[in-house]
Amino acid sequence: MAEKKEKAPKLADPIAASYEISTQEMIERSHKLGVETIFDRAVSMKPCNIGIQGICCKNCSMGPCRLPLPKAGIVGEDTRKGLCGATANTIAARNFARMVAAGAAAHSDHGRCVAEVFMSAAKKETDAYKIKDVQKLLQVAPHLGVDVTVEEDGEVKDRDVDEIALEVAEVALNEWGKSDGELLYLKRAPQSNYEKWEKEGVKPRNIDREIVEIMHRTHMGVDQDYKNLIKQCTRCSLADGWGGSMLATDLQDILFGTPYPLQSEANLGIMKEDHVNIIIHGHEPVLSEIIVAVAQSQEMLDYAKGKGAKGIQLGGICCTANEMLQRHGVPTAGNFLQQELAIITGACDAMVVDIQCVMQNLANVAKCFHTKLITTHPIAKMEQENVIHIEFNEHYALEDATRIVKMAIDNFENRGSDVLIPQHKATQIAGFGVESIQYHLGGTFRGTYYTLNDNIINGRIRGVAGVVGCNNARSRHNEVHIKVLKELIKNDVLVLTTGCDGITAAIHGLLTPEAAQVHCGPGLAEVCEVVGIPPILHLGSCVDNSRILLAATEVVKAGGLGNDLADLPVAGSAPEWMSEKAISIGHYFVTSGVYTVFGGSIPTSGAPVFHDYISKELENVYGGKWDVEPDPIKHAQLMIAHIDKKRKALGIDKARERVLMDMASRQALEV
Ligand code: SF4
Ligand code: MSK
Description:
single chain, alpha/beta, Substrate Binding Domain Of Dnak, Chain:A, Domain 2, Rossmann fold, 3 domains, 6-stranded parallel beta sheet, 26 helices, 18 strands, globular, binds iron/sulfur cluster, binds Broken Fe4S4 cluster
């Protein structure tokens, strides 16, 4: 009998797999070296057609129950049922809810870790962390009900900063598990949004409870009403956006400093052949903050030189990259889909990973090179033997970081001669936040978002879009991000970005003020030129989507554009989403009043009634709704049409001929 020939594995076509040249070069190199990446697996392994529609239930061992849509579509009553009788709506809603729970858990558990480190710093148990931004502490404290002044002998005095920090730490940590009351930060939203949540009975009680309750409700035989399940998704996602994520952002700013605009670079080309290259990847800045400090120390530089390197080059992937970029200008090596490629350069001496979005295949890729792959978090280890685990402990942060940096330096001499770093990188201006937008686009006089509102009202800026989220190996890397972004700014829509969308924009050169002249409509280009900002403002990591919520709240407060986030000419987008965190983010955008479009698909299409509920009816309740559009131009156009609808409702649709505001009209804007 003839021997059966093994089929050669399918390989990705580099040009079809990515829109970005250094990624294409590295995919090609991976093929030459015989190293398999996610791009190859994406061509050989197709997604499950039932799972993608959200209609497979495996919540008990009588299943999995699969409920495919009939070929002719649903005619008459939808009679599909699981063994227990669960309908397609129930199954899709339960699956959706579990994604919200997982996403909210990821953001919020990250927030909890930061709060614990914050507590150690407040108690002065560690030398590695101190309160760096006292102003931010004083600004945040009242939102947590912590007084910043004290009355003594009839005199109002400033409270001791250490005392405030300790109380902030206690109250903040309590937000995860308190036994009564409601999430304290909800009151930071415009009053109208708060009242809507109150009326609908969806105010989160505490962060952990809402996540646990989703897991309970979606257990076999509990909540079997998709509308009631979505109500719990709302509570849980609000506990993420206005809770766990917002606390993570605030406490990180207080500990490590509030970001302000700075210049840096992005793409694999930031790696240097004659330097020790350390790539930090994941989401939590608590370790990477210390690694940045250690890697920049004279002692480590001398040590690196002693080993024959010219210096130490740090680079980031995913949201740890965004955290280090925003506060220290550490260049970004790449986004989610470029993580394996950083190792394939052959020049990565150590890749240090913490939590979230870290592919397990990194270990297999690292095996083909000299790269030390180091996991650092107790909840995120890898089974492969070549992975080194150095568990990070905030009490020994300096020692841990020093051990990691030294390990990378020692590994420099083990680098093979086959190194290929793509020669592509772009300049980026990043580090924006609620405070810096106020500085650039606010009135110095009133300290609000006055100038931004003014420019929205007079039509130079048509509206604002929050464009966020991951890459997805099921679509061409970076293409949808870039086409959506360019279409928006071409139509005078100012973009606020976070996560891998921010990294993508940086890599393709859209995060510079000069990009405005090339890519923007005349109104937005003029504003960017006068103020000196890029048309896309990078606000940080995935948890920093909370900055987008607060920036939009400031716009409402500045006046003239309605009273509720749903009144604003704004829209949200996640063009190439893949993570469960994106579903939680999408849902808190929607229930905070923002029309939100996802690229690719969302796992609801197999249950059309449920899909219609979240993509049509929710708008009547919260003012925001879900939408899905894979085509980037149509995707952006849907957002622009929504922005125009809101401009019309506000009566500013005629103002796009750029009326200069006189004093009387300015006064009319006062709330
Ligand atoms: Fe099937 Fe119902 Fe069990 Fe889900 S819960 S797997 S639908 S029997
Ligand atoms: S890192 S969640 S791939 S944005 Fe926040 Fe990027 Fe998406 Fe991870």
